[in-house]
Amino acid sequence: MVVNSGPSQRHSAEAAHAASEVIELLEVLWERGREAASPAPVSASQLRVLYTLDRDEGINLRTLSETLGSAPSSVSRLCDRLQAVGFVERAPSPASRRELELRLTGRGRTYLRDLRDLREEALATAMAAMSPAARKALAEGLRGFRAAVDEALPSRREAGAGGGVRSA
Predict the structure, then answer these.
(1) Which of 26, 37, 42, 72 is the Cys-Cys partner for 115 at CB 3.0 to 4.6 Å?
(2) In this predicted model, what pLDDT tens digit does every residue of 4-29 receive, in sequence order?
């Protein structure tokens, strides 16, 4: 099979490289926010649990494990640690005596709110340094990127990754 290495493919590769560089910068900003949001920052895996519980409050361990694509025993240990720091609580399910529901505590919600605020503040500072035209182009490009990802990964739409959902 012959691969077309014309301008379109070259521009796609250049855009992918630029996006990769931006992602690395965002990872640094995100890590700073996580460290600043709490004296005992949570791990990236624990943060995924918090974001999932924020979106799908009251789910059980099995559903959380499926959502994260992890073994139930690993997710249970993550929840144990989050419960120990006061971010997650387990409560009996009204639907089944054998199941427990997982919920964020007030402290867990406060942590996520503070983390999101710190991260958005860092992004807003960076965006303020951009020209209005560059900000507009970035917003348009990000909308196009999100639409392409949603089209390529339909499971994101089914999992509730629509416009109103916030994630890590």
Answers:
(1) 37
(2) 566 777 778 888 888 888 888 877 87
